[in-house]
Amino acid sequence: MILEIDNVELNYNSKRILNGIYLKAETGKVVGILGSNGCGKTSLLNIIFGNIQPKYKLVRIDNKPILKPLYLTKLVKYLPQHLFLPKLKLINIFKLFYVSWQDFILEFPAFEKYKKTKVNKLSGGEQRIVEIYLVLKSNSNIVLLDEPFSHLAPLQVDSIKKIIIHEKRYKAIIITDHMYSHIIETSDDIYLIKNGCSKKINNINELKDYEYLSQGSLT
Ligand SMILES: Nc1ncnc2c1ncn2[C@@H]1O[C@H](COP(=O)(O)OP(=O)(O)OP(=O)(O)O)[C@@H](O)[C@H]1O
């Protein structure tokens, strides 16, 4: 499956946020979106998901325009920046998402003790791990991840990166995070959003040329 988005124009009041976006994601690949604070990364994920209606946008799947919000197609799962799970016991949430609790425990044994605990009793980072796992593992063709790494400890980041690499075999994954080294390591393609436009990055040194990273980075 190939997902493309272009012809995006997003304004908030009279402020232009996005104008000149092209992004392509496909099964088997992770696409990383980088950009400074407030450049429009979250807005772009919301536009793809269908939560935000910009002035213009064109979403295509396998070359066919998709006119209804993508979330209505059941093709897509979205991890927003904020915690979103219902206040239920963990085991029940896994049932809701049709995701195996046993497989989760194999990957994250420290969570076994939480099987019958309500998710809101976990720490913020623990809740985030559960959310990211569910979004990555539940049935979909496209996964959108908004800042999955930001609240995780290094070992947990490594586990999530491994799951992303595994799941991309079946899915097109689009991911944004300020932890740029994890994005660079995990992504097959990288787009930088700057001045409302997306720029495909062919060589990571371009991230310095476009002043996203300082000259001393990446050495
Ligand atoms: N509902 C809204 N009303 C008005 N302006 C908004 C709204 N949502 C976002 N913005 C503005 O749009 C711009 C892009 O916001 P967005 O959250 O998409 O950026 P971002 O790249 O994800 O930022 P960050 O990396 O800081 O999370 C920002 O300047 C923000 O202030």
Question: What's the quick description here?
Answer:
By secondary structure, the chain is an alpha/beta fold. The protein has helices at residues 41-49, 90-96, 101-107, 124-137, 154-167, 180-186, 206-209, and strands at residues 2-12, 15-19, 22-26, 30-34, 56-61, 64-65, 76-79, 142-146, 172-176, 189-194, 197-201. The strands form 2 sheets. A 6-stranded mixed β-sheet has the order 7-8-9-4-10-11, sandwiched between helices.
Walk me through what this model shows.
The chain is of the alpha/beta class and 219 residues long. It has one domain: Rossmann fold, CATH 3.40.50.300. The chain contains seven helices and eleven strands. The chain has a six-stranded mixed β-sheet with strand order 7-8-9-4-10-11, with helices on both faces. Strands 1, 2, 3, 5 and 6 form a five-stranded antiparallel β-sheet that branches. It is globular. The model has no long low-confidence stretch (mean pLDDT 96). The structure holds adenosine-5'-triphosphate (ATP). Residues 12, 17, 35, 37-43 line the site of adenosine-5'-triphosphate.
Please name the defining characteristics of this protein.
ATP hydrolysis activity; alpha/beta; ATP binding; six-stranded mixed sheet; 219 residues; transport; Rossmann fold; 7 helices; globular; single chain; AAA+_ATPase
Number of strands: 11
C-alpha geometry: globular
Largest sheet: 6 strands, mixed
CATH architecture: 3-Layer(aba) Sandwich
Measured by DSSP, the beta-strand proportion falls in: 25-35%
Our Rg estimate from Cα atoms comes to 18 Å
Keywords: ATP-binding, Nucleotide-binding, Transport
Organism: Pontimicrobium aquaticum
Family: Belongs to the ABC transporter superfamily.
GO molecular function, one term: ATP hydrolysis activity
